[in-house]
Every structure is written in C-alpha cells, then in structure tokens.
From TrEMBL:
Molecular chaperone. Has ATPase activity. InterPro entries: HATPase_C_sf (IPR036890), HATPase_dom (IPR003594), HSP90_C (IPR037196), Hsp90_fam (IPR001404), Hsp90_N (IPR020575), Ribosomal_Su5_D2-typ_SF (IPR020568). Gene3D superfamilies: 3.30.230.80, 3.40.50.11260, Heat shock protein 90, C-terminal domain (1.20.120.790), Histidine kinase-like ATPase, C-terminal domain (3.30.565.10). It is found in: Cytoplasm. ATP binds at E32, N36, D77, M82, T168, R315. GO terms for cellular component: cytoplasm. SUPFAM superfamilies: ATPase domain of HSP90 chaperone/DNA topoisomerase II/histidine kinase (SSF55874), HSP90 C-terminal domain (SSF110942), Ribosomal protein S5 domain 2-like (SSF54211). The lineage of its organism: Bacteria, Bacillati, Cyanobacteriota, Cyanophyceae, Nostocales. Residues 413-424 have a biased composition (Low complexity). It comes from Nostoc edaphicum CCNP1411. This is Chaperone protein HtpG. Residues 571-661 are annotated as: C. GO terms for molecular function: ATP binding; ATP hydrolysis activity; ATP-dependent protein folding chaperone; unfolded protein binding. The gene is htpG. Coiled coil: none annotated. Residues 25-178 form the Histidine kinase/HSP90-like ATPase domain.
Amino acid sequence: MLEQGTISIHTENIFPIIKKSLYSDHQIFLRELVSNAVDAIQKLKMVSRAGDYAGDIGEPEIEIAIDKDKKTLSISDNGIGMTADEVKKYINQVAFSSAEEFIHKYEGKSDQPIIGHFGLGFYSSFMVAQKVEIDTLSYQEGAQAVHWSCDGSPAFTLEESSRTTRGTTIILSLQGEEEEFLESARIKNLVKTYCDFLPVPIKLDGEVINKQKAPWRESPSNLTQEDYLEFYRYLYPFQEEPLLWVHLNTDYPFIINGILYFPKMRPDVDVTKGQIKLFCNQVFVSDNCEEIIPQFLMPMRGVIDSTDIPLNVSRSALQGDRTVKRIGDYIAKKVGDRLKELFRDNREQYISAWKDLGTFVKFGVLNDEKFKKQIEDIIVFRTTAKLTEKVAAETPVVEVQSSDGDAWQDVTPSPSSDSAPSAPYTTLKEYLERNKERNENRVFYSTDEATQSTYIELYKNQGLEVLFMDSFIDTHFINFLEREYQDVKFTRVDSDLDNTLLEQDKDKEIVDPKTNKTRSETIKELFEKSLNKPKLNIRTEALKSEDPQGTPPAIVLLPEILRRLREMNAMMQQGTAEFPEDHILLVNTAHPLIQNLANLNQGSIIQGDGESSTDQLVNLICQHVYDLALMSQKGFDAEGMKSFVERSNEVLTKLTEQASK
C-alpha cells in the first residue's frame, strides 16, 4: 500500500454537506464526471501539442459501464491520467483545482478549453455512491498506475494498481436509493441533457450516445440553413419553424458563442419563462437564463455558451453581478441591431415577422431605455391606409455574425416575387407625415378590429387613416407613445368622432311650427323618453356618408379620459372594467331608420292621447337601436341577452302586426 491517511479538508464534516447540499440535483454527478473526463482528454492534447508527450494519443473516447450485479457505475477516459502525487494533490486536498494550475502552465499553447475543475466536481460522486474508487495511469513515462478508494468518510487508501492503459476510471458503488443510475435509459437521458455536445465520443455498451458537434461553436460559414433548422428542431421538437435567427460569435468584450432564435409565438407559450439554454464550454448548465437575458427577450430560444458568465459551485444558478448585466446589455444590443438592419434591408420580411416579434419588442421598449433608443423608429402598426407594401412569404431568415468585427451577414434566399399580399404596416412617424395636412398631430387608433368595425368603417369612408393597436400590451404602449410624442393626441375610434365624420350644416334643419323644435331635437327627446336613463348622454348628429343606409343608426361613445380611468381602476383593483352608465349614445339622424322612426312617432301623436300600439313600437325600436349600438362596446350578460332577445321578438311581432293591417 502506497499510503493510508485522512483527506485534507477545509471545512468540518464536509461529506454530509456534499451528500445533501453540494448540488440541488443528485443527477448532476454524471455531468461533473464526464466533464472531468473530457477535461483530461483535452489536457493530453495540450501537452502533446506542447511537445511534452511524444506518444500516440489515439482516438479520444469516454466509456460508461454499468454492472448491475455489483451495483457499480464507472466512467473511463483515455486522457492524461494521474500520478500518485497528483492524486494526493488534486483529490485529497478538497477545494484545490487542478484546472487553474494546468491552464496557467500551458497558457497560449492551445485553443482547447478546459471544461471543469477536477477538485470539487469530483466529490459530487458521494451524493450517489457509498464508495468511490479511482483507477488511473499517468501519461508520464515510467509512471506507476495507482488506485484510490474512499467510502465517504475522511479516510482513504492509495495503493499501486495493475492498470496498463493510460487514462482514468471512476468507479461508483451506488447507494441503495440511487440504483436508478444503473439503468441504461437513465444514463442515456442524462448524457443527452448535459453532455450531448461535448466534442468527445461518449459510449455506453459500445454505442456512441452523444452528438458531439455543437453548431454554435462552428463557423457560421460552415452551416447551412438546414443545419440551423435541424438544430432548432432538435432543441424544440414539434414546434413551428422559427422566424429568423442570429448566430453570435464574439470574443470581445466577452467570450460568447450562441444561436438565438425568434420563434413563432403561440397562445399557450408562457413568455415569462425563458427557453434559452445556458452552456459552459459545451456542457449544459441550465434552462434558466433569467439573470443573463433581459426579461423582454425571454421568448427567444436557443443556446448561449460562455465562460465569462459566473456560475456557482453547482453550475446551475447564476450570480447577478456587473458582468452578467453587461452581457445582457450586449445581447440586447445585438438583437436591436439585427432588427434595425432587417427593417432597413428587408422590410417585407420584418413586417411578416412583426406579429410574433412585436409584443416583446414593445415590452423591451417599455422596460429598457437603451433598447428603446435603438428601435423606437422601427416599431410598426397595422393600418387601414392602402399602402403598396407586401409581406414576403414567411421563409425563415439566417442572420449570422462574422468573426470579423461582428458584421452581420444575410444568407437568406431572396423572397419570391409572388409573395402573398397582407395588411399594410406603418411606423408612427410615417403615419404623422402622411396625415399632417388632414389631421395634423392626431392619431386615430383601434384596439379591437371586430368590435370596433363600425367605427373603423366610418373613418375609412371619409378617408381617415386608423392604426390598429390591438395587442394586449398596447394599452400600456399607448401611454408610452403619448409621453414620447407629447404634441400628438391619440384618440380611439369609439371615444369620439372627428368633425370630418359629421355633417356640419345644421342651419338647414327644418323647425316644426307645431313644436318649435328641429327634427334632431325631437329625436333626442324621443330617445330620452323611451330609454329613461338619466346618466345617458344622447347626442343627435348626421353621420356623413354617400350611403346613409350603410352607416349605423346609432353608436355608443365613451370619452377617452373616462375610458382610461375606468381601465386604470380595473387594473389597480385586479378586476374587470365595468361599463359606465354615463356614456354617450350618438343617434345618426341621417339614417333612414331614424328618420322613419321620427315619422312613425309623429303619426302616433296625431292619433290622440294615451299610449297606442304605435307608441309601444316606437319605444321598442328606440331600445333596440340602443341595444345594437351597445353591443359593439360590451357584451351582454345572461340577463341582458335574455332581455335583448325578448325585445327583438317583440319588435318583430309588432312590425308584422302593422304590416298585416
């Protein structure tokens, strides 16, 4: 026996701490041991290139073996190996890392990375093993193979071994409750999760079980469009193809490699949970990049690999420090740069992707001042204007950074000339410039094309352009726009009507000599009496149109300030905004229905005192007109819908009675 003794530790009772608290997941041990094995192989390559080893390094490989009878799991490599002195130094002295010393010695002699630190990571083995053994033979000429063994107590044994092949084997005698790691399927799954992209073949029962090639570490010029798509499908199976992607390959001011994808958004995707995978030297670390990626970029997907991101001992949690913040700012800037270039060089593709990108781009503008300044001029809105833009077919775009000065390269095929047309989009500045003569510094917008379609048509028919601000974030975004454009007034199409939409010549209205009232005044009184709603403000206006029948007989308006206060109160109370009683009913006196209603009411007055059947019909029609106008602003509850249906049936009954006389 070469030696028997006690492991040198710097913390009392370290083994219970290791077993219970070193890592949050026990399965991490396999990642650590495989990473150490790759590390050993890379070290051998480095000493060989430095001229310190003249032997044949052979084909690198890592072999995982399971022995269910002995309940052991072993990980073997054909790397650099260790001498007895190195085992004493790197294994017996916990918390001393061999990687730092090794890198310092061979600094500048190779570009091969050292993945892990053999010291503390090795001790993760004791989370699952009741005994851990090391059988190793150093690459050094004349080295004696040694065998190290520890049963989880500070005591260890170190003796000579009969091993004849260079490299290291770690043998774990698993604890009873950890026998799941004797199942081949479990090991394959762990290798796929943590070690799939390590550049060394990992074998189980003679079968290579890892991909080895990490696309993000490849030169962008070596990857095809299909390579990028295939990688995305591998990371996120059964998802729609991404919109476009960015290949990051930067060594200043940070070392960052990665591929970030802009996915097509789906209603069932939780945009608050990041799906970017964090790697360190091709070893999977975490699905959680929340401390690295700005919150507004959380919907992005892909991979970031960096050795400059500080990790804690478990490699699964990040430290929120200044470096991480700068890296996050850098990534956000590159995304902003890419969006600006796409907007400038391929606006059709930009607009095609906007329905998926728009929401989290706006979120970024609201929450990141630097990002806002970058892209505030390329925020687009769907518009009713008849522009000439067409949206390209949704062909994914490959956007890469060259290694030369972070210059962007577009390797996307040009969109086909027969791309399908789509609704036009415009920036706010373009809208204001286009409409400055007609309605200077006024922006008309819609938040719901379906329910506000009546109002939108009124504006369109008079040549007024309406922007659609109909995503869930636009309620907040409009407030932002008003702060940025303080001289611009934003008006929702159903809050009030621009004078352009109304007939202004009221002097032509005929006054009835019997009542000394105009027809508009008579109609207003008629609706006030029929509806009997003291808080309802009834206005009578003639909507301008070449086809009065094509306009609505009445519309409900809710003043902008009143509506916003209602929405703000609902948000603060975390409830639903109730429709206020004090709203406006604008009755369209130019509509044939309203004119006929006025004539019908005049006829009922001539018939004499008391409420005739005609009076009843007039009242029902007034209520029906109001109900129809109200439906575009709010949905009926069960009782309201029941009343509406009953009144509708009653109106139809009375109309058929009148017609049959």
